Amino acid sequence: MSRAQDPHPNKSFFPFGNPFRMISPKGSRLSPQQLTILHEFEAKLAERLRKLTPKSKDEILSFTWMTSAMASIRETHSDVLTLIADLELPVTDWDDKWKDVYLDISVKLLDICNAFSSEISRLNQSNLSVKCALHSLESASPKHFIRACSSLDSWRQLTNSRNPRIEKCLTVLDDLVGSLDLPKVKNSAKGKALMQAMYGVTVQTVFVCSVFAAAFSASPKKLLNLDVADVYSWAPAFRSLQTFVNEEIRVRFSSGRFSVLNELEAIDASVKELYPIIQGSVDTVKMESYQHNVHKLSNASGNLSQGLDLLAKEVDGFFQVVLTSRDTLLSNLRPDKIVNERVHGSKNCSVYQVLFGLVKIVQVCVNE
Description:
By secondary structure, the chain is mostly helical. It is about 70% helix and about 0% strand. The protein has eleven helices and no strands. The chain has helices at about 30-50, 65-85, 95-135, 145-160, 165-180, 190-215, 235-255, 260-280, 285-330, 335-345, 345-365. The longest helix has about 50 residues, at about 285-330. The radius of gyration is 24 Å and the shape is elongated.
């Protein structure tokens, strides 16, 4: 993954006072059809938030849940594109402020995706040390135990080390929180619908990314408590999800666990059980326990590999959706394209067709 070049300089958003205000209701009102489109978007968002709420605390911060969370925000971003097409709001009719917000948010999301992909790769590399240890333990020969201990020590050190890209990601996340203070929209019902939808998808995205950042950085400091107004139909589902997940993560951090990530904690538990055995000699009495714990460690390492692979694919899928939508917006802002469309009298139609085609591409990605 690589970050797309941002044609606009970074802009400072409003001071962090109350960035969670409702979009101004004044001005032109949405038609019944436009309200239906917006309500359908928000109903889907509420349902996704409800599905993300784990049935038990054990599900939180498993890679299965994290993969579902990333898939959820990817699907909501694709829904925003569908809403744009359904509202027949061509990019060339967007207010400059909307374009700046969209581009600024998208470039921050690309940065965050790159940071998450970097951390996933790092965890995969550390898991190689576990696989090396398992290879040394296959023969149950005491002479290989020293090598196995060394490999497991390397795994622990690598896992406990900090990723500079995740540390930078925390700053980007702060900026993304600032982008929740969306520009006011006047005299544009479609623009209000767009900003309200962008607010919903950004809240969901900021929350999920803050959970990932907290888990990957091994720090609860970046867990956010976003205050969403009751006027939004998806607010109750969001608050329920946020409260459930954040409270459990804070409990895990306070308990002094090796990691708040389930799969990493499972490996650490197996390592702790193996160490007393392999640091001595394996006699007949210990052999059964030894084989059992080696099997557990092997399963834990396999689960970690599988979970990281699935999460990596989902992060990449989200990255591609954001990048494609960003590139489509930029391609329709080129002066030569706009001039050409004006000459042929087909500006709105061509932009709408491009957006509609993009929606189809994203829908294919979601179905895959």
